[in-house]
Amino acid sequence: MKHYKFITQSEEETKNFAKQLATKCQEKDIIVLTGNLGSGKTKFTEGFLSHYGLENEISSPTFTIINEYASKEISVYHFDVYRLEDSSEFYEIGGEEYFNKGICIIEWGELIQDALPSQYTQITFEKDNTKDNTRILNINTNCERLENYFENIKY
User: DSSP states of the chain as a string?
Assistant: First the structure.
């Protein structure tokens, strides 16, 4: 897995970062978002969906576990697995079946680590304690196409 680090200075920059990443994602890509509450995971997802014109449809899937967003191009499956006890509950809802359908964004994905396929991209969000809106995005990926993208962006 390769590691990359990016810093965003505002919610808007976080959303733009995600929107740009969405231009490189394809069916079967899995993006795992980790980080404390309020660290930027949902804003990232909002930005990602904006690439497909779906940003106004976003709602937190906390109580439904998964929301499906369909654009003309692709379906995006937004999971929030915070309330699951473990990966067995993820399997019970058929979560792994989505991995081959569209793009999956999984908030709190570290909770179902053992259910994830071998190839995915994990973004860990950290707040900068000295600047309210600054976020540090630590990215680990083993997807060669996205590795090339992260190596070549200037953010």
Answer: -EEEEEEESSHHHHHHHHHHHHTT--TT-EEEEEESTTSSHHHHHHHHHHTTT-GGG---GGGTSEEEEE-SS-EEEEEE-TT-SSHHHHHHTTGGGGGGTSEEEEETGGGGGGGS-S--EEEEEEEETTEEEEEEEEEEE--HHHHHHHHH---
